[in-house]
Amino acid sequence: MNEGDGLQLSPGTGQEPSEAVSAIDGESTRQMLELIDRIQDRNQGELDDAAIMAISDACCVSPEYVRVTANRVQQGRRQDLKHKLKSISLALDPQDRRFVMSGLLGSTCALMTVLQAVTGDQYAVFGTLGLIGLGSALWNVALSQTARVATFSGAIFGLLFFISRSVFSMALHADLAFESVWLVPFVLGGALGGLVLQNVVAANRQRLGLKDPVQERQELLRQLVDLQERLREGEQSLTFLSLDIVGSTKMKEVADPLSVEFTFTEYHKFVEYAAHKFGGRVHSTAGDGVTCAFSDPQAAYQSARFIQAGLVELNTLRNKIGVPIQLRAGIHSGAVVAPHGQDVTKINFAHVIDVASHLQKLSPPGGIAVSEAAAAQLVGGPRAVSDHVVEAEGYRMYVWQQRRIVPEAVSEHEGPPLSTPPKAPPFELGPST
């Protein structure tokens, strides 16, 4: 991690926690993503309109938000052409999708009609395809949820059929001229046909073996409630400690690779030992950064203090680089859902981890930034960390800061380290990464 300009933070003003730290919206989004993932896994990656509306009701978010999120989730996966087209289709509102399908089928039927006239269609290929397109258009209109949508869908089919037939006839030199006055009957006929079909199908849904939309939605809601209950079984409150070395890039530049490998390996062993000592475990590592998971904030805070204090011995006895290791630390608590309710190392995208990582970046070198949520659960409360709340980039935190700089590391060619006791300003947070 490279050093940059310092960041001066002022004590908080007593305002409510910002939206960035609030777990209300994040909880709804997390549940929505879990439900989308579960339903897509169950349905081979498909998510229909009824499922989208049910997720919207269950998570108290708009259907449009569910559509956009589901579409982005699908885009992040490798898909064949069929599923890509399905994702694009489901990203549209059901009403708009029906209108688009009516237009496409109208143009398709017109093209088949023109090709049939131009080629003679000896084997009835284009005639058959045209009938299939017409049947699909009738089915598309008949399944409309409201008479209004069915009327407009039928009108769009008639309009696009007439226009496309004229355009294709001109392009392919087919002798299928139509007077422009016929446009109105085509549109009105399509609208009337759509209205009649929709009413007939709506009155005979049970006979036709079609599911009632209201009942289907209620059934999906019941399934979603069951899924939410199962998801909550794996929900647990955890505290994450995020650690990173200050200026690690420069440290590696001035030392030989073997010394770097030895020193950083010893550092990771030390962090792992400190996490286990207070009942935690290493959750993940990324470069020089380490994230540890604990069952409660007190254990995470004690481990962080132990690690910061233990750097004196680490730098004196096991640091072969010649530059002392300094750490930034961030702590945050929140609810997470672990697969099977137990394996925390499988949690990779929880909001609580992101907040802990961001607080770590705002922490001063040698300091520990504890979120307001985590500090409130410590023995002694936030005062166990600091007397003042600090605000930065929308986050409210309490910052513990080392009162002296860690001793210089002993390289292979240097003598004993010299201690330097000056105190650091209590609320001047160090370089952000």
TrEMBL record:
<dbReference type="GO" id="GO:0009190">
    <property type="term" value="P:cyclic nucleotide biosynthetic process"/>
</dbReference>
<feature type="domain" description="Guanylate cyclase">
    <location>
        <begin position="239"/>
        <end position="360"/>
    </location>
</feature>
<feature type="region of interest" description="Disordered">
    <location>
        <begin position="1"/>
        <end position="22"/>
    </location>
</feature>
<dbReference type="InterPro" id="IPR001054">
    <property type="entry name" value="A/G_cyclase"/>
</dbReference>
<dbReference type="InterPro" id="IPR050697">
    <property type="entry name" value="Adenylyl/Guanylyl_Cyclase_3/4"/>
</dbReference>
<feature type="transmembrane region" description="Helical">
    <location>
        <begin position="123"/>
        <end position="142"/>
    </location>
</feature>
<feature type="transmembrane region" description="Helical">
    <location>
        <begin position="149"/>
        <end position="168"/>
    </location>
</feature>
<dbReference type="GO" id="GO:0004016">
    <property type="term" value="F:adenylate cyclase activity"/>
</dbReference>
<dbReference type="GO" id="GO:0035556">
    <property type="term" value="P:intracellular signal transduction"/>
</dbReference>
<comment type="similarity">
    <text>Belongs to the adenylyl cyclase class-3 family.</text>
</comment>
<feature type="transmembrane region" description="Helical">
    <location>
        <begin position="180"/>
        <end position="201"/>
    </location>
</feature>
<protein>
    <submittedName>
        <fullName>Denylate cyclase</fullName>
    </submittedName>
</protein>
<keyword id="KW-1133">Transmembrane helix</keyword>
<keyword id="KW-0812">Transmembrane</keyword>
<dbReference type="InterPro" id="IPR029787">
    <property type="entry name" value="Nucleotide_cyclase"/>
</dbReference>
<feature type="transmembrane region" description="Helical">
    <location>
        <begin position="99"/>
        <end position="117"/>
    </location>
</feature>
<dbReference type="Pfam" id="PF00211">
    <property type="entry name" value="Guanylate_cyc"/>
</dbReference>
<feature type="region of interest" description="Disordered">
    <location>
        <begin position="411"/>
        <end position="433"/>
    </location>
</feature>
<keyword id="KW-0472">Membrane</keyword>
